[in-house]
Structure formats: structure tokens, C-alpha cells
Design a protein that fits this description.
The complex is a heterodimer.
Chain A (H helix, E strand, L loop, with lengths): L3 H4 L2 H16 L6 E2 L16 E10 L3 E8 H12 L9 H22 L4 E3 L3 E3 L3 E2 L5 E10 L2 E9 L12 E2 L2
Chain B lengths: L1 E5 L3 H13 L6 E5 L2 H11 L3 E4 L8 H10 L6 E5 L4 H10 L3 E4 L4 H8 L6
Parallel strand pairs in B: 1-2, 1-3, 3-4, 4-5
Helix pairs in contact in B: 2-3
The chains are: A alpha+beta, B alpha/beta.
């Protein structure tokens, strides 16, 4: 299955992520397009504290869908999804749960855009940047901002000619 | 009325409970389950009026929970609340005996449309 097939769905992905945000996170402050954020720190530079959530799609189309949020955005995400007040601090379990559920919703909808039968994994969450297997190439990367903090959505997929490899994400150092 | 709500995400269970309230469904008893196995056990023990279930869960999936319930002769109304809302998934859900499938992200209006006839407002 051609990886180009998904390229035509970039607008669908932007619309979907916006819909998830307005329905379950924040119906006032939406996501805005933003310049790419340096998620992976250069040697010697400070690492951006962040959370990543990812789900794998397996079948004819092999892909990883990941969402990356800076720490303040992840906390605000959990507050928004749980309906907490601004001053309330979500615990780390709920924070990871919120990031994973965001990845699950986005990933499940991306899977639904692809024809044919595919399976969706349970979400993997890390309090650092999740990298996909090296065989997976970026298909769509949405660089966004929410309340001035970076948010990124990545769709990585196996090129059509590649054989099926393990899609489980690796945690970056 | 009594509702079993199955989702491995506590955050999503809270969102569903909030959305039920926003859709006008108040005063119902919500029994929470973290996977399909817990949902099946709760249904047999509590005899709910409705089951709302995620599809993809550890231990036992929502579709396996539905099959288990139908296999044991339990015909409790069962609806999915899942991120996978393709035609294929809806067809699989219907064939297994689900009454409806609400796709995430959802609105209170989507709940009203799906739950009409199953739940008192």
C-alpha cells in the first residue's frame, strides 16, 4: 500500500486533531500552526521536558502515530480532559493516561482513514520523546502550539517496498 | 438506571461520565470497569440496563466482552465508545450484537442520538 495514499489526508488530520481538542480538551483556546520545535536537543543543549504518546497500526499499512507535548501542555491537557480547575495539579498517572488517550483517539481515527483491515495497539506513553523504529519514515508532521507551548502530531509509516518489521517505539536517550 | 462503563483510561471514563451529564442523562448509577473482563463480571453481578464500552482494552477487548455476554445468553443493550469508527468497525460491532457505536471524539449530541430509546433522560 502506498505511503502516498495518506498524504492526501493531511487536511483530514488537521481537522481531526482540532476536533479532538475542541471536544475533549479546550473549547476556547484552539491549536495554532507553529514553526517546528527542536524536540530533540542538540548535544550539550537542554532537553525540552516533554511527554509522548504513541499507537501502532499494523496490517497492510504499517505506521506509528505519535503526539508530543511540552510538560506544561501535557499538564493542561490532563486538566482539560479531567475537567480540573486551572490551579489543580493532575497526578502523573492521570497525566500519562491523558497523553495516551489523546494518542489513541488520534491514532484510531487515522487508522479509520486507511482502507482495508488494520489493528491498533494500546497506547505507549513516556515522559520523554518516543521515537519510532528507524524503518518508519515521516508521512505527516503537524507542528502546532497551544497556549504558546509546542504540540506535535507525527504519522510515521513503513515505505511500501519494506518488509514488516517490529513497530514498537523506542524511547530516545 | 444502571450503566456499566468500560474503558482502560480513567480520563476517558471521566469524559464519558461528563458527556452523559451534558447530554441530559443524570441520576444514573455508573459502574466502572477497566477492561472487558471486569465489564463482563459486573454485568453478570449487577444486571445493568446498558453497557458502554471501549473497543481496544487490555485483558479482554470490548468486542470479546460482547461476544462473551451474548454467548452466555445475556442480551443487555451494549454500545461501543471507541476511537475506531470506520464502516468496517461499525459492521463488526453490529454483527456481534452491538446496538450502536459512538466514535471518539464525540459530542453530547452524539450521545443523545445513540442513547435515545436505551436510557431515560
Amino acid at each position: 500500500m502506498s505511503s502516498l495514499l495518506f498524504e492526501s489526508s493531511r487536511d483530514d488530520l488537521e481537522m481531526l486533531v482540532g476536533e479532538v481538542w475542541s471536544s475533549h480538551v479546550d473549547d476556547r483556546d484552539g491549536l495554532e500552526p507553529a514553526a517546528p520545535h527542536p524536540w530533540s536537543a542538540e548535544p550539550g543543549a537542554a532537553t525540552t521536558p516533554c511527554w509522548s504518546g504513541a499507537v501502532s497500526v499494523t496490517g497492510l499499512w504499517q505506521a506509528l502515530i505519535a503526539v508530543d507535548l511540552a510538560e506544561p501542555s501535557a499538564q493542561a491537557l490532563a486538566r482539560g480532559m479531567l475537567g480540573l480547575d486551572e490551579g489543580e495539579e493532575p497526578n502523573r498517572t492521570d497525566l500519562g493516561d491523558a497523553v495516551g488517550e489523546l494518542a489513541n483517539i488520534v491514532g484510531g481515527n487515522v487508522k479509520s482513514l486507511m482502507p482495508g483491515h488494520h489493528d491498533l495497539s494500546l497506547p505507549v506513553v513516556a515522559n520523554t520523546l518516543l521515537e519510532g523504529a528507524t524503518e518508519l519514515l515521516p508521512q505527516i508532521v503537524l507542528d502546532l502550539a497551544w497556549r504558546g507551548e509546542p504540540v506535535r502530531v507525527r504519522v510515521l509509516a513503513l515505505p511500501p517496498s519494506s518488509s514488516h518489521h517490529d513497530q514498537f517505539p523506542e524511547v530516545s536517550e | 438506571m444502571k450503566i456499566v462503563l468500560a474503558d482502560d483510561s480513567r480520563v476517558m471514563r471521566q469524559i464519558v461520565i461528563r458527556t452523559l451529564r451534558q447530554a441530559g442523562y443524570t441520576g444514573h448509577e455508573i459502574l466502572e470497569a477497566e477492561n472487558g473482563r471486569e465489564a463482563v463480571d459486573l454485568v453478570h453481578r449487577e444486571g445493568p440496563d446498558l453497557v458502554l464500552s471501549d473497543w481496544n482494552m487490555p485483558e479482554m477487548s470490548g468486542i470479546d466482552a460482547l461476544s462473551s455476554l451474548r454467548g452466555s445468553g445475556c442480551n443487555v443493550p451494549f454500545g461501543f465508545v471507541t476511537s475506531e469508527g470506520s464502516d468496517g468497525m461499525r459492521e463488526r460491532a453490529a454483527l456481534a450484537g452491538a446496538a450502536f457505536l459512538i466514535a471518539k471524539p464525540f459530542t453530547p449530541e452524539a450521545f443523545q442520538e445513540a442513547l435515545a430509546g436505551f436510557l431515560d433522560g
